[in-house]
């Protein structure tokens, strides 16, 4: 049989192929020749054939039929054969295939070989693809080589030990004695791999972390020698001595100094030296500075050192490299909650990043800008953010508008400024504004009686561009144009039709026109619009004597601020706002809360739903004639409130808010708990006790997200045993920002008249990374102070 072509000739031949089909034909022809050679047990050219097979594998063609040939080469006594054999094993084999177990004995023999290069090949292969079974069998040999005086073998043995620990963590203690003298090695390769090994052990075992904290002074000394040493051509990279080793040492110091005062104190000085002496003109220096900043922010460092770290990030924002600017913005976003004032100094630079062409930098700059907003800079920051909203891409408008709304609600210097800002956002962002903006604006307007005339002028100008004395006909023209416009959404048309109907009791000259408009939409293809029009038409024809009472002005919404999200209580004259019973509801009263949906799902028959409100009496006015038509809407013919039935037990929770404080001072001593922590989602409970009723516990949940993507459509549900009563208020948002940059808060109020130990089952649903997530959990570790 003629000798097969060499690898170099094969590469040259394949590169001459003009099409994919021609290359595939060449590969298939050569694979057939290699298979024939393997079948004939040709030992002469096995090494050459396996080398060619590995090249084909790198091109993406199947090469699994060469696995056994790799094992034969490993068993050979020739170094060139072993080298190709081990390379083939690392590329073609993994622990999912049982064939790899046949290598165990060969690797064990080679680990005890007299030639260091053969030992190095065996260590590399075991550290690359060794399974847990192989690691258990060969860990002893690796530990012996870790103690040898040969630097070449020690650095490879250290990396192999890292792989063994990852596969079999319980073997970690075997390598502990060998690590004692690793940091005394002068060879930088051994030092580098030793630091990697120590880092792996500290991350996987708290006991190892405590044991290695005594090495902090030695690590500080090594790092100091690196930054103070002169030029060394062997380790120099862009004028910096061994930056790879410096970065590894900084990462290990970060782990050792976390939550430890003594270790943090020992490394403060060297971190300051690295931060001030590192050259920043090259990326090598920037990489070291970034690791230094992360270490400073993660340990218990001094305040001056933290300011220095934030100033380094501020200099990164001026760098021409987009990656460095993005890294700086992300790091500042993580630290803005703990070092707010230091980050504020770089506000102008951060705002300038809003004008960057890179969308990822824009998004990070926008998120950081909102985090920097406070009562002192609200006007200037809103001016910049409104300018950004006007010129940004469509994908930013919804998030930017929501952020402006939240900031304006929290820090608005005046109601007029608040209304102007919201109007500016509505006219700028348009359809990108989320649905909750409309009710929030309505609530703001209704609670600002002195601003009604001004607001009407602004709204009218936003629609028509000019404001003057208008007639009834002109107002109806505007609303009709909204109804007939193809640009109007179904919800908007519903608003317009209801507005026209309400005007029928205010206008005197245009009632017939309003009747005509309403009757037209009685045959609309939009079911919602059609139903409204039919019901309004019935009001005109059958119940015209009740129309003025039914279309009375809406009552002012009262905004009640609790320790959680804002709760809007509508006092419509029929019930006391959120009055809760102190005894179980009658058997005939069916609770309507969504907590009922949890009963079957959570299991058990001792779960009680959300507390119902006090029952209301039926209206005794003429409005009762309309119940069959409009579906028992509890309408009244008079705007005067009907008093709620008296409850024999003392009211609680929301009663007496105006007369005394809601929460007791003893709440400060109740520790918080972590109720749920899984898949990056963390739920924490904090507690307060009601001052009006000691049997009521107010629980504030805080949901945070440590993953790299937002969690959307988040819904928290809860259920408690029947001896308790539970009220679940509205959450502050439905989206949890990534990287722990924000939280969702929600308030739970629990009545526990018998002072029994509190138990709760929770259900969490949300969307994350394109998938719908759902989980159940039981919380039994409530602190005694929360229920006793």
Automatic annotation (TrEMBL):
Residues 567-589 are annotated as: Disordered. InterPro entries: Adaptor_Complx_Large_Subunit (IPR050840), AP1_complex_gsu (IPR017107), ARM-like (IPR011989), ARM-type_fold (IPR016024), Clathrin/coatomer_adapt-like_N (IPR002553), Clathrin_a/b/g-adaptin_app_Ig (IPR008152), Clathrin_app_Ig-like_sf (IPR013041), GAE_dom (IPR008153). GO terms for cellular component: AP-1 adaptor complex; clathrin-coated pit; perinuclear region of cytoplasm. Keywords: Coated pit, Cytoplasm, Cytoplasmic vesicle, Golgi apparatus, Membrane, Protein transport, Transport. It is a peripheral membrane protein. One of its GO terms (biological process) is vesicle-mediated transport. The keyword Cell membrane does not apply. Residues 668-783 form the GAE domain. It is found in: Cytoplasm, Perinuclear region; Cytoplasmic vesicle, Clathrin-coated vesicle membrane; Golgi apparatus; Membrane, Coated pit. Pfam families: Adaptin_N (PF01602), Alpha_adaptinC2 (PF02883). PROSITE patterns: GAE. Subunit of clathrin-associated adaptor protein complex 1 that plays a role in protein sorting in the late-Golgi/trans-Golgi network (TGN) and/or endosomes. The AP complexes mediate both the recruitment of clathrin to membranes and the recognition of sorting signals within the cytosolic tails of transmembrane cargo molecules. Belongs to the adaptor complexes large subunit family. This is AP-1 complex subunit gamma. It comes from Terrapene triunguis. The gene is LOC113409363.
